[in-house]
Design a protein that fits this description.
seven-stranded mixed beta sheet; 7 strands; 41% helix; globular
Length: 220
């Protein structure tokens, strides 16, 4: 046992990756294709992708949401774990990035499970609420623009069923949330949501040092 969390260096990270379910050949190809991009830091790690796939399988997720899709790696990991008739509604604003995502979803044979909406995510989530989809989703993943995190969180909670889980990415923000010298808009937004979730009686929650920090909150 240990009273603190181990510091994960490159050697330990490699060991972890060697001992989780290997990513699919399509996921590996997509990750490698995204790596040279200037915005590649927005992609979740293979370890986080494996964790999300495991979680989706564990929860027997049928209906999932994703706010922030980028080039599609996290959506691919989730879709691979969904049953054949499962559905992931993915939200992003970039045609360029999501065109790349579609290519690899097709290659991986999961396109029929993913319903992509290329417009502001708040519009998509509000439309789902208006269409009577409240309390009908099993899992939601938030990984988009940080100033809107609270808006995404509130809408995803409405759309989740009791017992459903919302996963919020980047909650450690490379350590900036714990460093008072950082006071930019994104850092303030993440700090505020972290504080809110901690005391939110609508959920039970845990914050994990996976990737850039991942909060899991189960709707009560």
């Amino acid at each position: 046992m240990s009273s603190s969390t181990i510091v994960v260096n490159d050697q330990i990270d490699g060991y972890l990756l060697h001992h989780v379910r290997p990513e699919s050949t399509t996921a590996e190809a997509l990750r490698e294709a995204t790596a040279p991009m200037a915005a590649s830091v927005m992609q979740v790690s293979p370890l986080q992708g494996a964790f999300m796939s495991w979680l989706v399988s564990l929860l027997n997720v049928q209906n999932a949401l994703e706010v922030g899709t980028f080039t599609g790696y996290s959506a691919l990991c989730v879709a691979e774990a969904l049953p054949d008739d499962g559905k992931l509604i993915a939200c992003d604003v970039s045609e360029e990035w999501t065109n790349m995502a579609r290519e690899y979803w097709d290659r991986g044979g999961v396109s029929h499970k993913i319903d992509l909406h290329v417009r502001p995510a708040v519009e998509t989530l509000d439309a789902l609420i208006s269409d009577g989809r409240e309390a009908s989703f099993d899992f939601a993943f938030i990984d988009a623009d940080k100033p809107n995190y609270d808006s995404y969180y509130e809408r995803c909670l409405r759309l989740l069923r009791i017992g459903g889980i919302v996963a919020v990415d980047n909650v450690l923000w490379t350590g900036r949330v714990a460093d008072e010298t950082y006071d930019d808009e994104s850092t303030r937004a993440i700090r505020a949501l972290n504080e809110k979730i901690q005391y939110d009686e609508r959920v039970s929650n845990v914050m994990l040092p996976i990737g850039d920090g991942l909060t899991l909150a189960t709707k009560r």
